[in-house]
Amino acid sequence: MDGMDIATLMEGLGLKAREAAAELAFAPSEAKEKALLAAARSVEANLPAILAANDKDMVFGRDKGLSPAMLDRLKLDEKRVAGIVQGLRAVAAQTDPVGAVLAEWDMPSGLHIRRVRTPLGVIGVIYESRPNVTADAAALCLKSGNAVILRGGSESYHSSHALLACMVEGLREAGLPEGAIQMVPTRDRAAVAEMLRMVKYIDVIVPRGGKGLVGLVQAEARVPVFAHLEGICHIYADVDADLEKARRVILNAKTRRTGICGAAECLLIDRAFHARHGAVLIEDLLKAGVEVRTEGALLDIAGTVPAHADDFGREFLDMIIAAKLVDGVDGAIAHIRRYGSQHTESILTENAATAQRFFDRLDSAILMQNASTQFAD
């Protein structure tokens, strides 16, 4: 498509989204819930078509040379589609946020003030190879009374459009405007550039993807952006951690799905924990097929490799983890402040005071105790 066609196409999407947003702002909770439940049923009913569409995307991804981690992000199977259905039903069951009174008070002048939740309007979501984002983003925008324009990655083109059809079927069944959930119908990258300039039609852009995508959006967007740049997630084993619990959580945090932003990328171990329990945490990772990049005393563990200068503070999105010994919780905090991306950090400890210190002194979006960072996904 040439530049004029792209501009016309995107303006058409913007006009429909604006019209839909005006209706969604006062749409009954029952209608939004009905649309989401109908969409969930449609996804279930169209499982074969969704998997067939995903097969096309997987072939495209392999031909494009995507890494195993990226192909894992792209892949849909019956279990993952069931997860999409479950997610739609979970959002449908949530309390409608629109109209909720957050606070109210009286002014000395006699004015009565209320702070009320209202929709933003039109949200643009730009994402890469994870087709489930199509349903997730559409559901959350609909529930909160916002119209959405989706732009999925070229790799997930067929899967995303198959899921979009199910979401639109839900809107249709509930009598809501079909313009509430739209997708850019082209792989042309010029559409992204146009989307980033659509200040007349889009109120905020939310990029979901790798550092390259998010950085591009932040650098070029004229529309306001909600974003985090990358997921350099840390997991810290404190001296008071329960050993067996720590072993399970660390393996899950790294290996469950390596290609997501909630995967642990750096393991920090209290020197006192290491002195008490030895190499077991590192050995578990090595046995699971994880490449452990480290320094100092941990390099004495057979199978580990020396860390590169940039491995601490790196998002691997692969079966690789950086590991380091630190001097207690304060050492972990100092390391995370230096190398983290303020995404998700987890502390493994049975000491409530130590956990609270970890929470108080870090400013990441998500802080956890005795839980896998993968819950952040």
Task: Kindly describe this structure.
By secondary structure, this protein is of the alpha/beta class. The protein folds into 2 domains: 3-95 and 113-220, 3-Layer(aba) Sandwich (Aldehyde Dehydrogenase, Chain A, domain 1), CATH 3.40.605; 233-376, Aldehyde Dehydrogenase, Chain A, domain 2 (3-Layer(aba) Sandwich). The chain is 47% helix and 17% strand. It has 14 helices and 13 strands. It has helices spanning 3-24, 29-45, 47-64, 68-74, 78-93, 132-143, 157-174, 190-195, 211-220, 243-255, 271-277, 280-287, 328-339, 352-361, and strands spanning 101-106, 112-116, 122-127, 147-151, 181-183, 204-208, 233-237, 264-270, 291-294, 305-306, 320-326, 344-348, 366-369. Strands 10-9-11-8-7-12-13 form a 7-stranded parallel β-sheet, sandwiched between helices. Strand 12 (344-348), helix 14 and strand 13 form a beta-alpha-beta unit. Helix 2 packs across helix 7 and helix 10 (243-255) runs parallel beside helix 12. The longest helix has 22 residues, at 3-24. The mean pLDDT is 95.
